[in-house]
Amino acid sequence: MIAAAGLRKSYGPTVVLEDVSLALGPGQCLALLGPNGAGKTTLLRILATLIRPTAGFLLVGGVDATRHPEAARNVIGMVGHGSYVYEDLTALENLRFWTTLGGHDASAPRLQAALRQVELDGVADERARTFSAGMKRRLALARVVLGRPRLLLLDEPFTGLDRQGRKWLSEFLLEFKAGGGAVVLATHSLGAGLAVADRVAVLASGRMAVDQSCADLSWEDLRQLYDNLTEGNGPAQ
Which residues, given as ranges, of the chain have pLDDT below 70? Predict the structure, then answer.
């Protein structure tokens, strides 16, 4: 689903990513760890074709994403750190607006099915301003699944969720993987998302310091490794 080699991103003299390579297949989840400023969001935005790398090679879904970003976007769904819902619209109206804007089928049965998938069908006609942070995150995911992505890119998806919300999101991602989808989950919280991850990678100062199977790392090993790699990192850039 993803094949990247030698990705670099710089803004003038400031290097944000340097020589980042990764590969991810269908049915796999990569937990991308790193402190604030490590380059996680920049890497997600490159994988989503929202920004171009300064150098390097990127295939997404078999498509050269640097040369043909629009084709690559057909398989990508991204949920950023914020949910970006329209507070004064209902859940159903939010989905209808997003889907119509994207030129997709906005029929009521299709929108209702997306809300059922994220367990919001019971509040379809309620305004988003009444929703909890977890419900808004679910609504953002409903928007994404309407595009039937094969690759989900998630930036800090567990932030602000209560225990029930974290449990629901984990189950949702496990089901998405079981259907052949791939997930990249970026977080600065060591424990978030590891229950659904098959591999863990650590970005430190813009470089991929670790990319390893979760089965090969105990929790204590991972915690010590993360602390050693990220100790002394500077503030976010």
Answer: 232-237
